[in-house]
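Researcher: For the record, we're logging two predictions in this thread. I'll number them. Prediction 1 follows.
Model: Prediction 1, sequence and structure:
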Amino acid sequence: MNNNTYCIIMAGGFGSRFWPICKDDSPKQFIDILGTGQSMLQTTFERFACICPRENIIIVTNRGYVDRVREQIDGLLPYQVLGEPTRRNTAPCVAYAASVIYEMNPNANVIVTPSDHAIFGMENFIHDMEQALQATERHDCILTIGVRPTNPNVKYGYIQFSEEPVDARATNLHKVITFTEKPPVVMARQFIATGEFFWNAGIFVWRLSTLRKAYEAFLPNIAKSYFALTSSTPQADVDNVYALSESISVDFGIMEHAENVYVMEASFGWSDVESWDSLYGIARHDEHNNGVVMGKSLLYDVKNSIVHVPSNRTVVLQGLDGYIVAANEDTILVCRRDNEDCIVKYISDVELMNSRGEKPRQ
């Protein structure tokens, strides 16, 4: 394990698509979405603790979730949890953490990762991350991890790559040609047909010196303000930087403009678990293609459905085909899988009903 390796975990999202088990005060990263006995943040932290020293992992989250992070992961040092006063997308988040790392180790090699993705095949994952870190040590490059697409998913970003490998010691490392964020389904099908595209897994690897040069070149305002922050910067000064900051992603602000961007094909399984339907796709299925992720269940003439209820609850279902059945302690959702885009409306209707003290409508 290399002491120069650091990891930034981005843990500020809300995850409203997993309502009702996820809410504003209990977003996706703090929930056991996969039924493993750990939250997604806990799983992500333990995964990267196999790659770098635990004290080299920095978690950036919404300020309101700082205590929640510390409750879920014991023994974190003060600098390891950074609370953002407001959401400004991923570029400011990464710059803030990178500046704190720079205080400790200007020679750091840094992995940036979301907190709420699913990884399958831990041995392959560790191998790929170590190979990526070695590549960024050899090259002044920004490296992203790509996943070979299995379907024309329109909720993922796509990376077009050059088929010619750029490093004899890493034959799965390729030059990036283009990034396309969430293409329409027809375009996604065309991408897959060419064999020249990966899904963007949202995991970046770069030396800290490369990261800082990229920000200074493409996001100079963010570089100037965020690289002045430290782990001891007064909260009021952090608030002021965020208040004046633009909101922009690393992908759009840097990746789409830099020339030294490379992609490494993952040998591990990956899903960003962005919706109930994507969770259904990675869940273990019974003989009727049902995925019971959590809770005790009795299913009668039920197929192609996903069930996620509290572990102390029993659910009895009959006659469903292609449904989401999800519950927390006070709300139950029963919704067709192909209608899950309506969940945002359901959340709004429930909040409106509760605010008025109304009884449920038929």
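Researcher: Logged. Prediction 2.
Model: Prediction 2, sequence and structure:
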Amino acid sequence: MKRLLTLLAAIVLTAAMLPAQTLTQLKREKPDLEAIRKATLDRTSPYYYPRLMAEFQRNDTLMKIDKFRHLYLGAMFQEDYNPYRSSDRELQYRAVLDRSKKLTRQECDSVIVTATRSLEDNPFNLGEMVMLINALRGKGKTNLANIWQYKLNYLLMAIVSTGTGDDEENAWYVIEPQHEYVLLNMMDLIVSDHIFYDPCYEYIAVKNTSGRDAGGFYFNIGPLLEEYYRKHPDEL
């Protein structure tokens, strides 16, 4: 897993960056995970998970942050949840994600097919989502690219809404380790170091695009690990 995280940290993401103004205006609130669990498993709730996922998979931009928070964090409480099922497949695109290189139409077609297949298996493979957006734009499919960009932005905003990332008490919650890197890349930051704070926290140091130290952010992976080991006790 450490090797995968190291490679993910090196991926250059080229979809539109998260607007700074959007992040500064976003309400930050530590999630009540037990309330989210109950809501997403309750058939009478507006946050019942199958309905949320069906709404997410429609090609529109109607879902807002509250539903995205329940969709994103509620994924941990679904029986098929596995935060380590993201494959290395996205790494094959590293060569074509360089900002200075424009994808050929053939490369775009290949990325669209593979990324779409990957997202059907794991709707929260954010790295593949970034690649799909880039490839759709390369093919001139702007409207569809904008819909995927909306989904990506709101999933990342769902993460940011869980805290400030400034310390352990206000750490950001993620449901997959790769999301830490995608989020920071989409904030136009470059990962410079990754420190594990056993058992629940990670600290990721970052630099800005000029190569200057820009501090770092804390992530809470305790709930992720708890649900993973509950569903996969053989991994303990």
